[in-house]
Write a structure and sequence with these properties.
Blueprint: H1 3-24, H2 32-44, E1 54-55, H3 58-63, E2 67-70, E3 74-88, E4 93-97, E5 102-106, E6 115-116, E7 121-126, H4 135-158, H5 164-180, H6 183-187, E8 189-191, E9 196-201, E10 208-209, E11 214-219, E12 223-231, E13 243-247, E14 254-256, E15 263-264, E16 277-285, E17 295-308, E18 310-312, E19 317-319, E20 322-330, E21 333-344, E22 348-353, E23 360-364, H7 366-375
Antiparallel strand pairs: 1-21, 2-23, 3-12, 3-17, 4-11, 5-7, 5-10, 6-9, 7-8, 9-11, 12-16, 13-14, 13-17, 15-16, 18-22, 19-20, 20-21, 21-22
Helix pairs in contact: 4-5
């Protein structure tokens, strides 16, 4: 047999075999040549061959709120994951102190987490029964005596019957006595100067306190401060950190500070009280979902990298230690793609391999696709045989 004819026959047989194999792998399309072109294009992009095809009707997808996102490279920050704490902003925190010596009696509704309005009585301080009596009452009596003496001397000084030195001494005594007396101490009422939330109660009901001793802390919880504890080994990159994403321990939520009007309060770095760590501070507006005092996971965002493929965190599924995303092939057909993940900022995760630009990836409702995958149902016109 002629060698050229023999080679031509072999090439023809190989082509027939390839077409037959690809046709069996088709997703139920009527035109085999269209599906062959579709598979050939996918393979040219370096994708793995379909392991299985998952069918989910458009109606079911809509019921589960399934949505997709087109893969596009974009910007992504370098991430440093650290721990931190939500603390009250010093400029929005007020301490309510005891106006006099005495026994503390808290007002109704004074408890941690309660809202209070400006002028609300936090506590009343009673001096009854204290050894030594009421010091403020003594100051009041001395003030009244000093005032009476000054009023007696004023007409005498006007007629120059007494010297200026005598008059000035009486006036100074009155001012001194007036300074020692406090109207608030006389009432024994300790009230909050502004509206806010009670974040600390520092003494117990019935406790004996001295004048000026802190009783409670009131905070305006509408603005909070995040303290992120950055290990000292990251000192060189600390100035490049501009914002952060916080993950709350009591709910599966992430909060980018950029969406809460957050900003870093200072670019200075210094060693904090926690040995081996540098505190980095951010202030942000509280949307009502962040609890003051909470310890949180913090994803600090550093330098920007361009051309990075990312997907929302909820788009990724894990099975036996491997990660997958679901790609939508057509209206009711999906496939599972294995992916290699990179950095995760709590909102989006880097995909280092496994995805190509232009693919439609399920980003919400992936649970519905997983259920359809587990059912193994094969719709009419589809085949899982290869």
């Amino acid at each position: 047999m002629n060698i050229k004819i023999y080679k031509r026959q072999l090439n023809f047989r190989y082509w027939i075999l390839m077409v037959t194999s690809l046709s069996l792998a088709a997703c139920g399309r009527n035109a085999a040549d269209d599906e062959l072109a579709h598979h050939h294009h996918d393979h040219a992009e370096g994708e793995a061959e379909y392991q299985s095809e998952i069918n989910l009707s458009e109606e079911a997808a809509a019921m589960f709120g399934l949505t997709t996102e087109t893969v596009e490279p974009g910007d992504f920050h370098e991430i440093i994951s650290v721990s931190g704490q939500i603390v009250d902003s010093p400029s929005n925190t007020w301490v309510v102190s005891a106006p006099t010596n005495g026994i503390v009696h808290y007002g109704a509704g004074v408890a941690l987490g309660n809202d209070v309005k400006a002028g609300t009585t936090i506590a009343r301080i009673s001096s009854q029964g204290l050894t030594g009596g009421n010091a403020n009452e003594v100051a009041r009596v001395e003030m009244q005596a000093a005032k009476a003496e000054l009023e007696r001397l004023e007409p005498l000084y006007a007629e120059r019957i007494i010297s200026a030195a005598t008059y000035n001494e009486a006036k100074a005594n009155y001012e001194k006595a007036k300074a020692a007396y406090s109207d608030s101490a006389a009432s024994g009422i300790a009230s909050t100067p502004k509206s806010g939330v009670i974040t600390q109660v520092l003494v117990s009901e019935g406790q004996n306190v001295e004048v000026g001793e802190p009783l409670a802390v009131i905070s305006d919880a509408r603005q909070l401060t995040l303290r992120a504890d950055l290990p000292e080994k990251y000192y060189s990159v600390a100035p490049m950190i501009s914002t952060a994403i916080i993950q709350m321990p009591y709910c599966n939520e992430s909060h980018p500070l950029t969406e809460l009007n957050g900003k870093r309060t200072t670019n200075a770095t210094a060693t904090g009280q926690l040995k081996g760590y540098m505190p980095i501070y951010f202030t942000f507006d509280n949307d009502g979902h962040v609890m003051p005092g909470s310890y949180v996971k913090v994803n600090l965002q550093g330098a920007v990298r361009t051309g990075v493929i990312t997907v929302p965190v909820e788009a990724v599924s894990e099975q036996q230690g491997k990660f997958f995303v679901y790609r939508q092939i057509d209206e009711d057909c999906y496939e599972k793609l294995p992916v290699e993940l990179g950095q995760n900022d709590g909102v989006r995760v880097e995909v280092k391999s496994g995805l190509q630009p232009g693919q439609n990836i399920v980003v919400k409702g992936a649970t519905a696709v997983r259920l359809a995958e587990s059912s193994g149902a094969v719709p009419e016109g589809h085949s899982h045989s290869y």
